[in-house]
Amino acid sequence: MTQNALNSVTMAGGRSGLMMRLLPMSQQLVVVVLLAIEIIIFSIVGRNFLTVENAFEVIRQNVEIGLLALALTPVIVAGGIDLSVGSLIALCAVVLGMSWQDWGLPLGVAVGVALLIGTAAGLLNGLLITRLGIAPLIVTLGSMSLFKGLAEGLMSGRAPFTHFSTWFNELGNRYLFGFLPEQVLIFVVAAIAFGLLLHRTTIGRTLVAIGFSFDGARYAGVPVCRRLLLVYCLSGLVAGLAAVIYVARVGEANAGAGRGYELYAITAVVLGGTSIFGGRGTVAGTLLALFAIGILRNGLRLADQPAELAGVLVGTLLIVAIIGNKLINQLTDLSAGRTLSIRRERGNPT
Amino acid sequence: MIRKYLREISVGVAYLVLLGLLAFKSPSFFQADNIRQLLVEIVPALVAAVGMTLVIITRQIDISIGSVFSLCAYIAALMAHQGVPVPLAFGTAIGCGALMGALNGLLIATLALPSIVVTLATMVIWQQALAWWKQGAPVASLPAGFHWFGLNQMAGQWIEAIIALLIFLAFATAMRYLAAGRAIYATGSDYEAARLAGIRPKLVTFNVFVLMGILTAAASILNAVIMEKVYPTSGDKLELRVIAAVVVGGVAISGGRGRLIGVLIGVALLGTIGRALIFLHARSEWGATIQGTIILLAVSSDALDRSRR
Description:
The structure holds 2 protein chains of 2 kinds.
Chain A: H1 2-12, H2 17-45, H3 52-77, H4 85-101, H5 107-131, H6 136-155, H7 166-173, E1 175-176, E2 180-181, H8 182-199, H9 202-212, H10 214-219, H11 224-250, H12 261-271, H13 283-302, H14 307-336, H15 342-345
Antiparallel strand pairs in A: 1-2
Chain B: H1 6-25, H2 32-57, H3 65-81, H4 86-110, H5 115-134, H6 153-177, H7 179-189, H8 191-196, H9 201-224, H10 238-248, H11 260-279, H12 287-308
Helix pairs in contact in B: 1-11, 2-6, 2-9, 2-10, 2-11, 3-4, 3-5, 3-9, 4-9, 6-7, 7-9, 10-11, 10-12, 11-12
């Protein structure tokens, strides 16, 4: 049954299978060109830009946002969204600090507790979305406020947690072999895991199907609710992991951790060619967009330009990217005579 | 009748319970000057929420209003500071709001781009541009005509409340009785059917975003005149507070459904919690937790109600 379902979903998009394959690629191509231009410009105007150390520094500074973007890719591909991940970093960071300092747990166990809280929070989001059928945008808007509020409430009137063990701080600040930051290894593992999940497993295919057509996937026998629960739980787990790395890197756990990260992560996912309405997107695109944003911020800093310029440019890029995406969509629609994109023309915010 | 207004009634009852608790535990909450301060706090969010209601009923969303709010208030304050007559400064700010709304509307209505992505981008652009321009410096030493519109504090507070109420009543009436208001509902509930019925949904969507910009600018002015100094971050997180209030007020995020009277109660409920916590001697840091819980409870009850029917 499930296999048939998968076939029929593939068939539905199969009339222009080649175009469907090329669509996400076209936006990735734009981002690759963008990356190349950035690297050329910053090698000329920036001091110490084109060095191995700086390349790893770019990644090190972006690991937390990068992890969120990786986890959000399957969520958005499946037609959902998770605004709560930034606040969840704050909550997990506070829980990590409390369970270690107040409840006297060993730091390793405290890390486990933080990851567990993250997963539980993701499960809460997933249950509200799947069992009650509330729009993900609204559920995670509410839980964003809830998690942030819990973090602030737990921290009210007390100093941030500091003085973590040496091994823990090294997780965020030590360089293996003198150049490879430890958390980059975690990021690489996560990137491979999410790439495999989305592109090499039947679960990944069903996520694309759900994002493409929720009802279609359900009638075809896909366990829609279970799949969606999985991606929201993963999103929560990864937010917990990002919180652990954040605390290790900064050496401090407080309620301000992860502020505004969700927007950067969503920007990276969308810039990387994932459709905000679901049904299309790649982990590779997200990674490319992450590099493009990270290098832009790093290069502007090394070229003594204000940090805000990077924000303005990223916002502009995002608009240019979706306009480009739209035009490509229309061109391929015309050439293939498809009417599938009518569903996407409607401006549904969720 | 009860069924139709169930959401408004239940949120209203929740608000009455909160007020009752305050009357019981801390009667000093109902002193006249405290009530006036509360009104003034709620007013900017209410005016912005009126615009957001139109946007959400059209089945769109606008998360750039926080940045538009900051930028408009800052432009008005800067112009007034440099000697431009205050009404002209206010007018320019509202014009800027309309332009920023028109940009969103142009991208969303004519190019059919997803509103959540477009307004995410414009939110970041305006916010960062303002930070780049002024590096967070507030505008101080505003002219006499700016603070409380040049009136004394009490008169200024009443004027604020009256302006907001007039805006609210005008839009509530228009949404219910005017063809333009019904066109907004039609566009949000079925875009294609609205087009076939002779409504121009693109134009409706564009106009709604322009109105959103104008109302955001008006809200930012109503907020700026309260302040001694106008900070370039005055609208931070406004979009979240406003969307939350609109959703709690019973407006469906899937478009085409919702009434402004519910939004009024939603804004009042969420806007009162912060001040109420202080009077109930609770830690104000828990405000966001309670707010999040109310949002989730409100939307969950909605979903349960739907599944029971």
